[in-house]
Amino acid sequence: KEVPMNAKEIDKSIGVLLLIHPRDPQPQLEYALDQFVLRGGKLVAFVDPYAYFDQSMPQMPGMPQQASSSALPRLFKAWGVEFDPGKVIADVVFASGGGANYTPTVLSLNRTAFNREDIVTSSIETLLYAFGGAFKVKPAEGLRATTLVESSPNAMLLDSSRATLRGDEAMKGFQPSGSTMPLALRLSGKFKTAFPDGLTEKDKPVPGTPVLRESTAENAVILVADIDMLADGAAVDVQDVFGRKVIVPSNGNLAFAVGLVEQLAAGDELISLRSRAAAFRPLTVVRELEA
After folding, report:
1. pLDDT band at 272 (very low <50, low <70, confident <90, very high)
2. How far, in whole angstroms, is CA 76 from its chain's centroid?
3. Burial (CB count within 10 angstroms: exposed 0-12, middle 13-18, buried 19+), residue 287
4. Does the pTM exceed 0.85?
5. What tens digit of pLDDT does each residue of 109-152 get?
6. Whole-Å CA distances, 50 to 62, 72, 225
7. What is the dihedral of CA 47, 52, 55, 61, to 10 degrees?
8. Residue 104 neighbours by CB under 8 Å, 6+ apart
């Protein structure tokens, strides 16, 4: 079921909502999402500081196309999540390409980046995370955060205007943060509203809108700081086999997204389930020394 971006309320029949790239969200949309989560709805939100596969035509002739960005500023603030929609993450451990095509903002993530104890990420082998962002999280009271995917410590946030730089140009002024940053996370617990005065217009309450102030039971929200990973260009290879198009996943991107939805749709039992992943010790020491 499709939900319009100007929705004032999420249909009661929807239990899990997949939100992809909410550009310029209006207060009424964030309010609808807020009330949806408080009534027990599960939310999976993909946001992005530099949506490479969603570029707008320039207003002036001769200017390059502009990549769009998205965030949920009011909800993030209420939940204790910081996300800068103008910053992309560069990571020299997971960087793609080499030489002149070395691109530290296109991350080829392997098992070392995933939470191996979570049922969704325990079986994912690779993710292509292109021009995405990162979160900082200090969960609001009543909430706890679980990192699902994270950067290496040899990473930093760059201005999105530098997102597509390659080679030596991309590494100018690189200063690693020294600590990992969450790229995807799950918030669990009892949520409180980001709109304590309800939905207002010109400082007046909007009539007919519900006013839930906090969730009565525990709930979960999943946040991912990249939407390009869901685009065909990043997630699949399209092959021609005897005149027929065959679409083959080129990494774990789609399995990751579907796994998040399935985990929330299955209820609290699957969210709390922990994997029994086999011990895995990849040979990453050389790569980290190089980084």
Report:
1. low
2. 12
3. middle
4. yes
5. 999 999 999 988 988 999 999 999 999 999 999 999 999 999 99
6. 21, 15, 10
7. 140
8. 90, 91, 92, 95, 170, 171, 174
Q: In whole angstroms, how large is the CA radius of gyration of the chain?
A: 20
Residue for token digits 């909800």?
75
> What integer is the mean pLDDT of 90-107?
95
Tokens of 190: 């009892």
Sign of dihedral through CA atoms 46, 71, 136, 181? positive
Rounded to an integer, the average pLDDT of 185-194 is 97
The segment with the largest mean pLDDT, out of 8-17, 50-59, 274-283, is 8-17
Token representation of residue 167: 């080679």
Q: Which residue has the higher pLDDT, 88 or 209?
A: 88
Q: Give the SS3 label for residue 286.
A: helix
CA gap 40, 218 in Å, rounded: 8
What's the rounded Cα separation, in Å, for the pair 66 and 161? Answer: 10
Chain center to CA of 143: 18
DSSP per position, 10-79: --TT-SEEEEE---S--HHHHHHHHHHHHTT-EEEEE-EEEEEEEEEPPSSTTPPPEEEEE--HHHHHHH
| Site of tokens 């103008």 | 86
Which residues, 6 or more positions from 272, have their beta carbon under 8 angstroms from its beta carbon?
none
Asked whether 270 and 119 are in contact (CB, 8 A), the reply is yes
